[in-house]
Design a protein that fits this description.
CATH class of the largest domain: Alpha Beta
Distance between the termini: 65 Å
Oligomer: single chain
Number of helices: 28
Number of strands: 26
CATH architecture of the largest domain: Alpha-Beta Barrel
CATH superfamily of the largest domain: EAL domain
Number of domains: 5
Length: 850
């Protein structure tokens, strides 16, 4: 029942009906029993009285008329009652006095004549009492044919009390009907009184509850004055009050929960947050003020003992006095913190989230600064974040928890941003530098060489290229060891760098080879630079462990743009050939190309062009497959598809023809032939692993590339998600806009994407920020240097691994050439490994473990 009053009335009605029914049946049963018992007694008395009367008359001397008068008088007496009296003559009396008119003798009467004992027979509403007239001594005078004890007759007294029972039941029903309004009226009055009392209390409580919209309102909800009249109801209500008290302690506002959800979303660190983390903090400050008043946020992070500015973010524009107050409190907090008390100097910068409004004047008595500290060992970062709130909020445990959560979020976000910035800054530096010598690396060298070639064409300028190779360095390295060899390289590099001008570009091309771009210089100027390098090296020496003094000489080749060639790649080939000739002609020389030298180099190039063209026409571009293993399991899970050309029974590696094929514009055709053959092999063995395929950046500008590849995988029934396309980092730098569209189109078709030689160029981390990359293949030079004393290379690889794992990108170590390097990649928790130690490229594609 929804209504208490109706419940009480209905309950009373049902209860009354039940009670009345029980009462009726109990009284009826009791009344019937009394009537039956009384009927038995009266019937017995009537029978006895009748016998006594008859016996008395007979005793005095009787006549037939006397007996009839007695019987008639008896019948008259019971005419208007339930009783009837009959006297039956037995055979002995009939034998002396003859038969009379009487009811037929039934079994009950016959039984009495036989056994001579009185008997009571009962039916539903009738009592039949049978009384035997036994002969006594006095009777034998007249009943000469009888003996004492013989049954002379039977008196039958019948009482039919049906009407009495009916009347009794009727009277009971009438009485119950007359008294029925009394409990109903009482129930109505009681329910009305109770309902009013309870309804009044509940209505008052409802109004109070309706005013509860926040946890703060819940805490002011007063319930002690509510009285529900009955002890049981009040005990029930006490349970409700206890629940409310517990809710006051644990309840959290809905808007706080919504804020916490939004706060969790702030944990997602995107490239925009890394780039504009200050705007991110301002947004968080504005959101905090939706649930509680927060005046400001401050942060200080120290990375590798470098002090950063204290950043203070204000909600609104503060007065100068308020700024000074907060700066004082911040200094006090930092001095009280064991990690930051030794900071000698700090700069404080102020940023305002909503500058159109002014902040109220704040003092040390009204401003409470709650802080949280973060200390990381790797990378070495220490930070402290603080939120400035009104002092009254510090007594609110819920708000304190919210502030604690906000500070944790801020520490994680800002700390991660700072760590990423640190990683990115270091990695972008070392990605462009050779970690041993500090010179530019090979990738950057090619970028700058291509750039200078284009610049020289536009401005009709010249520049020269100097390729430098240390003489006998392998012997020095083998005799004195790698550590000495590294120091030797560093010394030679230092001499070389000192000779070039500041604007010139100097790079370690690889191993013991260096290259220098001399800007705005002809070959005579470049030759002069080479002479100065030789002179500088005459003064250079390094003492070995055994006391031996080791000197250095170099062989150098010079080529000038555009005098010798208008192609940057041909320029390098020409200068490199001059180095080879310098070495074969005695070393420690500088050679410049003659007309015949230039012609011979380009003759070699022409021959290679013919080989490449014929290989395309005859479909002699062949795929070779190099295994890639999962470092954790040791199982082969993928293969990289490498391009080879079959020529005169031998195989030409990609390094021998790819650059030239790219220059003459046929590399995409070779890519198609390679993929068609690789996919066919994969289909033949029902290959279920992943295939990495190197593609030329030319693919980015060909609109038919993706439709063609889509058709190939469909024809060979290959799952696109198992195909990973690789582009070398250096090749992608100039094509960021094209690359973005290309990668998105690949991903839309289900293919995956990888950056090869990751870490070798300027923009390694730009790709991760802007493109949905699935894999990065770490530059092989970094991997090779994991074994030995090159801590910088190890730090770079570790940083790449940490960064990639944080954004869900898989890492692949290239150039894993021995077990020691493999173990190093395992310790750095890289995902996959590839190199000669894992397996050399071969023409067979093997099934991988499922």
């Amino acid at each position: 029942m929804k209504d208490l009053k109706n419940f009480i009335v209905a309950g009373t009605i049902l209860g009354s009906i039940l009670i009345f029914s029980i009462t009726y049946y109990v009284i009826s049963y009791w009344h019937e029993g009394n009537v039956r018992s009384e009927a038995k007694e009266i019937s017995k008395n009537v029978a006895g009285t009748t016998f006594n009367t008859l016996f008395h008359i007979m005793k005095k001397g009787w006549s037939r008329n006397d007996i009839n008068e007695v019987l008639d008088s008896n019948n008259e007496l019971f005419r208007n009652t339930n009783y009837t009296v009959e006297v039956y003559r037995g055979d002995l009396v009939e034998g002396l006095y003859g038969k009379i008119r009487q009811p037929a003798v039934d079994k009950g009467i016959s039984d009495i004549f036989l056994d001579g004992r009185e008997k009571t027979l009962e039916t539903k509403n009738t009592i039949r009492y049978l009384y035997p007239l036994n002969a006594k001594a006095e009777c034998l005078k007249c009943h000469t044919n009888a003996d004492a004890g013989d049954v002379l007759g039977v008196i039958e007294v019948t009482d039919d009390f049906t009407e009495v029972i009916k009347k009794g039941k009727k009277d009971v029903r009438l009485i119950l009907l007359l008294i029925s309004p009394i409990p109903l009226l009482g129930a109505f009055l009681v329910s009305l009184i109770i309902s009013r009392r309870i309804t009044g209390s509940v209505s008052a409580l409802r109004k109070r509850v309706e005013n509860v919209n926040t946890v703060k309102d819940l805490k002011t909800l007063e319930m002690n004055d509510v009285d529900l009249v009955f002890r049981d109801l009040n005990e029930l209500f006490d349970g409700l009050k206890m629940t409310v008290r517990k809710l006051r302690e644990i309840a959290i506002d809905k808007n706080i929960l919504e804020f916490e959800i939004r706060l969790l979303e702030r944990f997602i660190i995107t490239s925009e947050i890394v780039k504009d983390w200050k705007d991110h903090i301002k947004h968080i400050l504005v959101e905090i003020n939706r649930i509680m008043e927060a005046y400001c946020i401050f942060s200080l992070f120290v990375i590798n003992d470098e002090t950063y500015e204290v950043e203070i973010f204000w909600r609104n524009t503060p007065s100068q006095k308020t700024r000074e107050t907060l700066e004082k409190i911040v200094r006090q907090k930092l001095m009280a913190n064991i990690y930051f008390r030794d900071l000698n100097s700090m700069n404080m910068t102020h940023t305002i989230a909503l500058p159109l409004y002014n902040l109220p004047e704040l003092t040390e008595g009204t401003l409470e600064l709650q802080t949280k500290t973060l200390i990381l060992d790797t990378p070495r970062i220490g930070g402290i974040m603080g939120i400035g709130v009104n002092v009254d909020l510090s007594s609110d445990p819920t708000r304190s928890l919210v502030i604690e959560g906000v500070l944790t979020t801020l520490l994680n976000v800002v700390g991660s941003v700072k760590a990423i910035y640190k990683y990115t800054h270091d990695l972008e530096y070392y990605a462009t530098r050779d970690p041993l010598t500090g010179l530019f690396n090979q990738r950057v060298f090619w970028e700058m060489l291509d750039y200078e070639a284009e610049r020289a064409k536009r401005h009709n300028a010249k520049f020269s290229l100097l390729v430098i190779d240390i003489d006998n360095f392998k012997l020095i390295n083998d005799v004195y060891g790698h550590i000495f060899g590294d120091k030797f390289l560093q010394g030679v590099a230092s001499v070389i760098r000192s000779v070039f001008r500041k604007e010139d570009i100097v790079a370690r091309y690889g191993g013991d080879e260096f290259a220098g771009i001399v800007l705005d210089a002809d070959q005579e100027h470049a030759f002069y630079v080479g002479k100065r390098i030789r002179e500088g090296l005459r003064d250079f020496s390094l003492r070995a462990v055994d006391g031996t003094t080791v000197k250095a000489t170099v062989s150098m080749g010079v080529a000038t743009f555009p005098d010798h060639t208008k192609s940057s790649r041909d320029l390098f080939i020409l200068a490199d050939n001059m180095v080879v000739r310098a070495k074969t002609s005695g070393k420690d020389k500088i050679l410049m190309p003659s007309f015949e030298d230039v012609a011979e180099v380009f003759k070699d190039i022409s021959e290679k062009c013919i080989i490449i063209t014929n290989a395309i026409d005859e479909k002699r571009v062949a795929p070779h497959f190099q295994p890639i293993v999962n470092i954790k399991t040791g199982e082969v899970e993928a293969y990289e598809t490498l391009m080879r050309i079959e020529h005169n029974g031998k195989l030409m590696t990609a390094a021998e023809f790819v650059d030239l094929a790219t220059d003459i514009g046929v590399i995409s055709k070779m890519d198609y032939i390679l993929m068609e053959k690789a996919f066919r092999k994969a289909a033949e063995i029902n290959y279920n692993g992943k295939l990495f395929i190197n593609i030329s950046p030319k693919a980015l500008i060909f609109s038919e590339f993706i439709p063609t590849v889509r058709g190939m995988v469909k024809d060979h029934d290959i799952n696109p998600t198992n195909i990973i396309f690789e582009i070398t980092e250096r090749d992608t730098v100039r094509n960021l806009n094209l690359l973005e569209k290309f990668v998105l189109d690949l991903k839309f078709e289900g293919f995956k994407f990888a950056i090869d030689d990751f870490g070798s160029g300027f923009s390694s981390f730009q790709y991760i920020k802007f493109f949905p990359i699935d894999y990065v293949k770490i530059e092989g030079e970094f991997i090779r240097s994991l074994v030995g004393a090159k801590e910088v290379d190890t730090a770079i690889v570790k940083s790449i691994a940490t960064f990639a794992k944080g954004v869900g990108i898989k890492t692949i170590a290239e150039f894993v050439e021995d077990e020691e390097i493999f173990r190093a990649t395992e310790l750095l928790e890289l995902d996959y490994a590839q190199g000669y130690h894992i397996g050399r490229p071969g023409s067979d594609l093997k099934q991988v473990s499922p």
